[in-house]
Hints:
Oligomer: single chain
Largest sheet: 2 strands, antiparallel
Distance between the termini: 27 Å
Number of helices: 16
Helix content: over 70%
Amino acid sequence: MKSFGFTQSTHYFIGLVILSTLLAIPSVSAAQTANECSFSRTLEDGVDGEDVRCLQKYLNDNGFVIAESGPGAVGHETNLFRTLTKEAVVKWQKAKNVNPASGVFGPQSQAAYLLDLIAKIEGKKADTVAVATAPTPAPQVAGISTSAIDENKNKGESILKDAFKMMRDAEKQVDDLDDESKLAKLNKNLTDARIDLYDALESFFDEDYKNAYASGQDALDAASKVFEKAGGETYESKADDVLSDVTDLLEDVQGLYSDAKDNKADVGDSKKMISEAEDLLNDAQDEFDKRGYKQAISDALDAEEILNDAKDEIDFVGEKDVEGYIEEVRNELDDAEDEINDADDDGEDVDDAWDLFKDAEKKLNKADLAIDDEEYLDAQNYAEDAQDLIDEALDSISGSSSGDEKKAKKAVANAWDDYDDAKNDISDAEDDGDNMDDAWDLLKDAKKKLNKADDSYDDEEYQDALDYVDDAEDLIDEALDEL
């Protein structure tokens, strides 16, 4: 949605810049600052609400008087946005160089309001510095140390910045939705998140840093839920998944190491490597607890790499690993059976495919027997033979449409994953101040290609789907080249 040239995403960007400026200014108590209002919507002729009353008070306090007497006058502000309020807003907009000066108090006007608030805070700060004649001890709150106050302030500042960023990411994700019903619901949820964020800002300005943190966390959680429901994956969610997967891998490798030692097998340097991985996972968990999700992912992936190397060091095949592998091959056998049946229904010659299928089935049965005899290496070899036979069976089906379907399905899914990853990378670059307009344009084109790939797949035009995927991947690569 646009209002006077500002998208909602731009509005949040302005808000974040303004917030960063405010947070850099030494605290000024609420009694010293200009009147502070929380705006979560555009105010215009005909709307009602307490945000209108706050706007009227701000205008009256700053010389843009609503009325000399009666409703709207100083001390008699109302919650009604009507003609007199609109006229006062027009005067204020002209004074603040807000164009057009239409009397509609939207995102551009609200940004100008925040800038005015900053100017007044900085003015108070300058006055304080000018009259200071000697260092004054920092004020103490009974029972609370200055260091504790500073810590709470830093936590509040951090959560507010995170909440602003997530709000903008959620807006971008919601903008990509085509489902009008879902769009309306998520926009309502975003409004609730904005209210939490404004509450957090108000608490921060009042130096109530604990409540600022709590409300900021509520805003962050609400915006994160919107982002995920709109199809995005937050770094918190991604980090949680990676940590869970690598923790499972650690347990598997520890079990394999224990089994290898019990069987007097060579374990190489795996013990040392497992210890290094444990330390990295602990670091990852610490970062996760501090909301350092990117670093948590990085540490966990480093641990994963070390654990895989440790696994290679262990000259022993564990029961759990082999059983999992056999189950995986058996699933491939089931899929192959479906594909051969489909090819048979299409009138293709599948005699060789069935012969190879039966041989693969026999190999898997031998693998099961080897597991029962605790001959895990033999079981793995039988399963590998079965997998090779399955591949041969599928290759023997000439021009299998079901094979094309499987290939297209996987390609489309992978391309959407690449699209989501690129979207996150471009958002991060934009947050760092880079101009990503060209990258966003390329990514939009890639999305159009992927939508066509989905349509082609649904129409069973699998080669067309693959062609669209290739085009989309090229566009995604071009978008990433803009980083």
